[in-house]
Amino acid sequence: MKSQNKSFLNKELLIEVVKTSFIKLRPDLLIKNPVIFIVAIGATLTTITVITGLIKDSFSIFNLQIAIWLWITVLFANFSESIAEGRGKAQAQSLKANRSQTKARRLKEGKEYIISAENLKRDDIVVCETGDIIPSDGEIIEGIATVDESAITGESAPVIRESGGDRNAVTGGTKVLSDKIIVKITSDAGNTFIDRMIALVEGAKRQKTPNEIALTILLSGLSIVFILAVVTLPAFFGYSLHASGLPQSDNLSLPVLIALLVCLIPTTIGGLLSAIGISGMDRLMKRNVIATSGRAIEAAGDVDVLLLDKTGTITLGNRMATDFIPADGISVNEIVNAAQLSSLSDETPEGRSVVILAKEKFNIRGRDLGKMEAEFIPFTAQTRMSGVDITIDGKVQRIRKGSVNAIRSFVYNNNGFFPENIEEKANELAQQGSTPLIVAIDSQVLGIIHLKDIVKGGIKERFAQLRKMGIKTVMITGDNPLTAAAIAAEAGVDDFLAEAKPEDKLRKIREEQANGRLVGMIGDGTNDAPALAQSDVGIAMSSGTQAAREAGNMVDLDSNPTKLIEVVEVGKQLLMTRGALTTFSIANDVAKYFAIIPAIAVSLYAGPSGKGALSVLNIMRLSSPENAILSAIIFNALIIIFLIPLALKGVKYRAESPSKSLLRNLCIYGFGGIVTPFICIKMIDLLLNIF
Hints:
By secondary structure, this protein is α+β, with helices and mostly antiparallel strands. The protein contains 23 helices and 21 strands.
């Protein structure tokens, strides 16, 4: 599903978000965020103080301003969470629009019954033909069809789904474009893949991750410490007022104490914490990956080891012809000509690549096969070769290409011999991870077609980036160790597992986890399900089996095996963003402390000049205690709204070591968190003096 890029200033979205921000003022919703709940309690007490003062004819515009800005702080915190949820709901609406109320053709005892898709149950059998909407999630048990999955992937290109193998899973709401399939339903109504996607992107089922819970407990603990500190201030101020000869009526009022508390507790990260988590899921959605929980995204950010299948992930997936190597006494044109003729009927990717290479590199194009009376010999797993029999000037020539053993037998059966240098070259190519195909005419060997499993462009650089981040890459392949070693060296992976079976993958994951590492892997088949379930981050491809999708904690709608690397980057960006904004928030509190406390204590122990000994700490030279408090409380509210875009977009990700990222973010967000309040509070103070 392609993410719906609703603008931050989209009118419809903002109206809905503002409305939701007020709805979230309900105490049962606010209490889920303890820090903002404390602010809401403070805003309520300040409001009561203002109303009481109005009734007693002691109304204070200063107290009213504090109350207003406290409520604005709560609303801005709600706004940050609501706008993150609102973007998810916009995505959910597009899913709901694509999901229609369809009828199902249930097959029972050989007869079809038309029922509502909502009435389908697990293990029901349904029939789907051209033009039908697949009524629910299931597995094809008979037939093959092209399916339009744009409702969930956003891609218009149809895909092939067929019974057996790893591409038998179909998703409810997708459309059959051709042929007929019989599907066994694997999900109950209301629990289909799209239903779960809608619930996830709306945020209705988003649970706080362990890291979020731990951080919430930490922020709550800090808030309790500041509450205790603020509660003791009136006693200290009362003593100081008495020692200074000032009246006790000058002691700190309840609104001032509340404003001070709100400025000192970590309201910034408290207001942005949920938005950071939700936006992490949103950024993953933009890459067409559905995470079943925020925990999975966080785990991706902490992954130490990535297990990647060779075929389709590290390599293009099909061996391609890269060169023609003639035997002694044979010209290049002879082998190229024979290789292309023997491949014309070979519909395998390897066969087509031979034809393409001959055409592009040697300009050998179409020819009149009718005059040659060509009889094509298709490739089979038994013969392990393909070819063509042609007749030139009444003489039949049998041209073959195939494996070393197959062509050796073919040549020997025609009373020929197999050159020793060709045998040696073929073995050399095999040791390099390539596949040699031998070309022969009757009893004569013409040479070798060099087939190579092509490593994807740029993949080596990406693995180098992962290595900088401290992530170990392990290639998994069914190839023999020699071939696996050659591909691993070319791709630049850290390790490889050759001749791997499903149980080998599972064992490898458990070994790495036993060493204290977090493991991520990607798979699509039923045989991958145990490993996907065992791994800390298991990405199942949407094109894969239902078992794989159920076992993983993420689903890649594009079925792109390299997506695992992007998922890791999103996870790391989420953790970096949360850490950076937490650092900024706590640094803010330190700065606000030095801004407010000296300003409100400037009159204590005052001398003839009206300034006390504590005035030396008022380094910001704020104009008055009232302005100091108002400036700080206004800044405290506005900084949340200014940081929302950063929380949603995330801190810029760089492929580097964690220690380097930590040092840079401490410098930027730690130092910035201290300096920013000093500058902004002073500017607000100047504006308050003007207006």
